[in-house]
Design goal:
- Keywords: Coiled coil.
- The protein contains 5 helices and no strands.
- The chain is an all-alpha fold and about 220 residues long.
- Helix 2 packs antiparallel against helix 3.
- The longest helix has about 120 residues.
- The protein starts with 5 loop residues before the first helix and ends with a helix.
């Protein structure tokens, strides 16, 4: 502890200033307001008229005031840091809430997407089933068309065969009429129709023209 000499007191306080400048903690001493407070004490000591005024007890009191000031500053800084921590915690909580909300939206959107995918899969399955059924219908129609073509060819052959038979019957009918001297009085086409009618009668169709021709033939024979 320095003596009552003001020079030693100044050196002591200047030593405190220098040590305070070298302290690593910014909250305790490495603070501009704290250093200015201690420098004010130095300037006050320089203006003292007598070394006896600022003795060791007053230096200690001044240091107590500085300690109280620093402690108050520390408390203020701790409160400030606590407020900052609370603010950060509140921001983190808000961010977590927002994150949970976004996660809920994402999960809901994902479920909706999966549902849409499932629905599209079901629709695709229905479409594939419908396409398979239509292919079966197409194959059945193709088979029916082929059957109809076969029948058409068969009917065409029957028609051609019937035309040939009609020509033969017409020729036979004309020969019979000429043999018995029956005047037909008909054109060749009419004779062909008569031949066709006779053919239909022979097949037991009971056609009216066949009956008329048969009646005419009986009257001619009579």
């Amino acid at each position: 502890m320095p003596s009552s000499s003001s020079s030693e007191t100044l050196r002591y306080l200047e030593g405190i200033i220098e040590r305070a400048k070298t302290l690593p903690s910014p909250v305790v001493f490495n603070d501009s307001e704290t250093l200015r407070y201690l420098e004010g004490i130095i300037e006050l000591a320089k203006t003292l008229p007598s070394p006896a005024v600022m003795n060791d007890r007053e230096v200690l009191r001044c240091l107590d005031l500085v300690t109280h000031y620093i402690r108050t500053r520390n408390n203020s800084r701790e409160d400030y840091l606590a407020d900052q921590n609370r603010s950060k915690d509140l921001e983190i909580a808000e961010l977590n809430t927002a994150l949970e909300t976004q996660r809920g939206h994402f999960e809901s959107a994902e479920r909706m997407h999966n549902l849409q995918v499932d629905n599209l899969g079901a629709v695709l399955l229905v479409r594939e089933t419908e396409i398979a059924r239509l292919k079966q219908v197409e194959e059945a129609l193709q088979a029916t068309i082929q059957d109809r073509e076969v029948l058409l060819e068969r009917y065409q052959c029957e028609i051609e065969k019937g035309m040939e038979e009609r020509k033969l019957l017409r020729k036979e009918l004309l020969d019979v009429c000429a043999k018995f001297g029956v005047p037909t009085g008909n054109t060749e086409d009419e004779v062909g129709n008569m031949a066709t009618t006779s053919q239909m009668q022979n097949r037991d169709y009971g056609d009216r023209d066949g009956r008329v021709f048969k009646r005419q033939r009986r009257e001619s024979d009579a």
